[in-house]
Amino acid sequence: MENITTALENWKFVSSDAHLAGALLDILKSLAGAAENAHKLLGLL
Q1: What's the mean pLDDT in 28-37?
Q2: Where are the domains positioned within the chain?
């Protein structure tokens, strides 16, 4: 997780705030989707 945070911090310097916010939203959506899928898989076991 620290690597992701560091990458985002570095990226902040070369991206606009709006672009960064959009990317963060995409990442959060991906994480939420992965968590939901994992929950469904665990429910099947």
Answers
A1: 91
A2: 2-44
Q: How far is CA 38 from CA 25, 28, 45, in A?
A: 20, 15, 11
Burial readout 10-33 (b: 16 or more C-beta within 10 A, e: otherwise): eeeeeeeeeeeeeeeeeeeeeeee
Residue 13: pLDDT band by 50, 70, 90 thresholds? low
Assessment of whether the complete model's pTM goes beyond 0.85: no
Q: Tell me, what amino acid is at 39?
A: H
In one letter, which amino acid is 11?
A: W
Report whether 23 contacts 12 (CB < 8 A). Answer: no
Distance of alpha carbon 15 from alpha carbon 36, whole angstroms: 30
